[in-house]
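ENTRY TYPE: paired fold submission
RECORD: A
CONTENT: sequence, then structure tokens
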Amino acid sequence: MISGLGAKGDGLAEIDGRPLFLPQTVPGDRVLARVTGERSGGFKGTVIELLEAGPLRAEPPCPFFGPCGGCALQHFDEAAYGDWKAALLPQALERRGLEAGKLNPLVKIPPGRRRRLVLSATRTAKTVLLGYHERESHRLVDIDHCLLATPGVTALLPPLHDFLGALLSVREEARITLLESETGLDLLIDSRHPLALRDRELLAAFAETADLARLSWADSGAEAELVSLRREPLLTFGGVPVVPPPGGFVQPSAEGQQVLVDRVMAATPKTAKTAADLFSGCGTFSFPLAERLEVYAAEGERDAVAALSAAARRSDRAARITAEVRDLARFPVLADELSGGDMVVFDPPRNGAREQVRELAASDVPLVIAVSCNPTTFARDARSLVDGGYRLKEATPIDQFPWSGHLELVAVFER
């Protein structure tokens, strides 16, 4: 019998007093399962047969659900799913002995809003596979649409599938990053396939036919090479148009980005004059803050800082933004550098900001706003801030990743 859900959305059963994680099950299911290994102090397994469906099981809306590893929870009742997602943040805080002074309701971003997808592709002897890997597998599931993505991104999948069939040789692979910018689709193809003149002609022709804003090419993570620029792909942050680097990180949905910015700006005091934006990316929070504050932006990705700086120079905020390339895991902004500032915003990757938070906890900054996509590492970092004298005033969970175990959040800390 499945008794609950784990943090990643797997159903939970029990063997010898230890948890057994079973994907694609929901509370109330009775299943026949096989143990396949160990995980998180317990076991992981696979379902052999669903003996009896629980009352919270729903019909998945996507025909690819199951094999496709892109979603984990399409089979879960919508209301129960919302309750489970909303509980992820308070549960993570409780495990660290923390509680938010005010926990706001879950903000839901519905499916069909994902403007950025990262897919994999491979050419087999018979066909091209374009899509997501199966869970814990190297096998690719070929998809021709995605319910998470915007209509513009989804519409590109079939022609992109056919194009990769003409471009790639047998056994060649590619990593595809798709972004629907405000001026059109931005496509980055990362592959070891050697580009000949014919390939470049094919790429340029595809960019024209598919009406791409920009098409870039990278070789195994190397610096991206511009192949076709028909117009600059633009995203607007705080009223400032920014050209993001090819394949660079941006918030996955425009709606989710707006919620995050609104929460950060609502927590910004009217009396504040300076702000540090740490893990700034290409300026999601820097530009809204710089409408009236002096902003120091630090980010480890050189391309992101270049995009931020170029956008600042073209705007009316150049004098209010100072941007620096800085690996904040290895060289965090020190407490002495932060002290005397009015506020800090930080938005780290999924592994959190352990080193940077130590310096924040030792500073005298009166206000810290944390943005995170991982409640577990956020709670760890929050513990450090609270131990350093901060109070967790408010937190807002945001479901920017529907049908998954991922959760975005914004939290406000005050001294």
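RECORD: B
CONTENT: sequence, then structure tokens
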Amino acid sequence: MSSKVNTSDNLRGVRYEIRGQLAQRAHEMERQGYEIISMNIGNPGLFGFRTPETMRMAMIENLPSSEAYCHQKGIFPAREAVVMQQQDRGVMNVTAEHVFIGNGVSELIDLTLRALLNDGDEVLIPSPDYPLWTASVILNGGKAVHYPCPPEKKFQPDLDALAGLITDRTRAIVIINPNNPTGAVYGREVLEAMVALAEKHNLVVFSDEIYDGMVYDDAEFFPIAPMVKNTLCGTFSGLSKVYRACGFRVGWVSFSGTNELAKDYLQGLDLLASLRLCSNVPGQWGVQTALGGYQSLKKLVRPGGRLYESRQAVIRGVEASNYLTMVPPGGAMYAFVGADTDKLPDFDDQDFAMELLQTQHVLVAPGSSFNVDYRNYFRLTVLPEAQIIDEVFRRIEKVLRS
């Protein structure tokens, strides 16, 4: 008799609801002929954003050189371009040997944690978080410990609470700046305080900077690597967001700080990189052109630019609502919107998101998807055109009134 095939126990506690039940229901509705406005994922190509022409040409021109496996860390021109970016930021102890190219930052998050963690080791992760970080810690035998970045602090880290969570099992701290899902951009003093804690307790700093430079108004992005001197720092970035090339699947992590004391760890990471042979080769040819060329993002995030104006549409929609509240996002491509529980005491983010999808054909991500203990928030992307966002908020208001 055939027996049931069960899932691994390692998947307990792992979730990625951004592509979960709601997204699956949205796909079913699309197959039935409904037009769904998908606000749940930051995928620029779906909203008409194009990868810069120079990057596409670099990939096309180097296709004949892309048919073989490359070095497990990535092609040299791509890694050297990352080194030059870090040097421009004042980080001088990085060489191409300290840079790993991956199939997006997602793969590198998994590999860097797998090389670091033993069973039961703890990693400090922001709450709200990008849930892949929590999932990867769990999948690699660790324990995700969430430090609060609460709405009342404008989603900035609660430094006192963070310090109180450090134990003798804590191995690393994750910083996501600019933040997904909240759009918070951390100031220099906050980052320096977090670095001081990491150095005091010998914690590895993992800085997810995939939205570096994607900031609005007077917000300023500070890379963290120049601040880290006395512990290991891994800086993550890639082509998917700033350069609108999600499908290229190209990300990187560069290590700085105490690289000499982390030789064993970096060799272990090199072993894991070797086991998957290499990352996507054609897309890597776009890295040098991307980092060294014209930064077209700057035009998009200034007044009059498409991302800026779409963000303004979100701000207008929240301000016009009788039920919503929001800390305006200072960066990234998302808004984390809250429902006023005084006016809507029974609001539940999952129920709201499903009703919005079923009745108004708009897909958003419930806030509880991002490892928070409150259920009155939801995340949406600012990628659509402003007029589409205006329509989305009209539909949201209909559901809230009902």
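NOTES ON RECORD B: The chain has two domains: 10-50+299-401, 53-292. Residues 386-401 form the longest helix (16 residues).
STATUS: closed
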